Amino acid sequence: MSMSGLATSMVRDGSAVDFRVQTAYQLYVERLIKMGWSLIAPRTLSRRLDAAGDVDRIFENFTLHIEEMLQQSARLRPVAWDTALCEFHDRVEGSNLKWWLYGSAALAVRGLAIEPGDVDLVVNDAQQAGLLLAGLLVEPVTHMDDWVANSTGRAFHGAIIEWLADAHPSAEDVPHEQEPRAAGHLDVVEWRGRRIRVPDLHLQLAVAERRGLTDRCELIRRAM
User: pTM score, two decimals?
Assistant: First the structure.
């Protein structure tokens, strides 16, 4: 299916599918690679996913939103991360899903002056999160090899909602904000009438330092 500068296709391969994107725009190529896609031919990229759930409907939703996601990733379009987080929270509220928010959105809900590019979440059950976000998925929940966690999923509602489960432990003295040890270092933030669990600022500072995010480090230090 074609759109402005983009064409998408889905290739089935047993229990897996390849979501593919062809684009004439180098900026989109760069953004897709940053989002975990692989270049398989000039201007053609692929992401291998599990053929789980209603993958045809998920692919249609992906095709509908891919250009908006890429433009948000490139900061060419506003990112409605707050809308996305409200939707996630309200859908999972009352379920037995355990989760916390991490990354830039976890700083934004504290009131820090930062503009998140998406909503990043740790969940205890990736499949359940996918069921709770049915209708919003842009990728099926997928088991990952050679990645930071065993499972991941993506949805879209004003911004990308991305979650992971079973992150691999790090060897760092201060745990990464997405790994299991971080569960013992969470704060609860009141945000728009909702209670959001987020990593404490010491964890987020350590991550920012490892990534060399100088401006973010200074922002966090001022808030501590």
Answer: 0.95
pLDDT at position 4 is 62
| 3-state DSSP assignment of residue 103 | coil
Residue type, 53: G
Q: Which long-range contacts (CB under 8 A, 24 or more apart) does 22-27 make?
A: 27/70, 27/74
Angle of the 201-211 helix axis to the 214-223 helix axis, nearest 10: 160
pLDDT value of position 1? 45
d(C-alpha 103, C-alpha 198), whole Å? 9
Give residue 60's domain range.
Answer: 2-73
Q: How far apart are CA 6 and CA 44, in angstroms?
A: 10
Phi, psi of 217 (to 5 degrees): -60, -45
Do 179 and 207 sit in the same domain of this protein?
A: yes
- Cα 190–Cα 192–Cα 197 angle in degrees, nearest 5: 35
- Token pair recorded at residue 39: 């270049």
Does residue 48 sit in the same domain as residue 148?
Answer: no
pLDDT digits (tens, 9 = 90+) for 110-139: 999 999 999 999 999 999 999 999 999 999
